[in-house]
Amino acid sequence: MTDPTRYPAALLAEACQSKLVTAGALQEDAAETVRALIQASRLGTDSHGVRLIGYYVDMLTNGGVRKRPVRRFEQTAPATGRLDADSGLGHPAAYQPRKRRFVSPDTQALVL
Question: What's the chain's average pLDDT?
């Protein structure tokens, strides 16, 4: 058996990003998707890693995933909310709640 070909993560990320953007993904969505795929591959979870790039390109190209989703966030309580990801790529939707900050006027608490 031959040794697998190895590529620097930055080069691999750049190639994956290019493929997703060429297939129609938003630049930021492509970057967040690639971030997750590279992380999975680095951790040895190839079933969730960069080997899926072709699948995501096919989904974008064939309409299985919205290229330009309009995500909507609804705050449901001081520290909770609901995200409608509009059938876009899942990785950017998964990262989005981490970007939100909730401040409760009742408790003055910041929830991350």
Answer: 87
